[in-house]
Structure prediction request, 93 residues.
Amino acid sequence: MTKADIVERIHQKIGLSKKESAEMVEMVFGIMKTTLEDGDKIKIAGFGNFVVKQKADRRGRNPQTGEAITISARRILTFKPSQVLKSAINNEE
Prediction:
């Protein structure tokens, strides 16, 4: 599913214009993006949690040369689905 598909479904279900639907989707994703950039987590009941985690430096290896390298510290985004979403995906209603 793409962002355009989400916009289309909002347009069909709610009756907003496609432009209004697109603006709403962009606004929601923008809020989510800035929240995650700030390091805060997003918890959506019945859906799941988005959490930014810090990974430390670690040793790695270049697979082509076998040379040891340092993989720099970075932040990663994780998603943990809620039990409700897991059950729905597995048809365990």
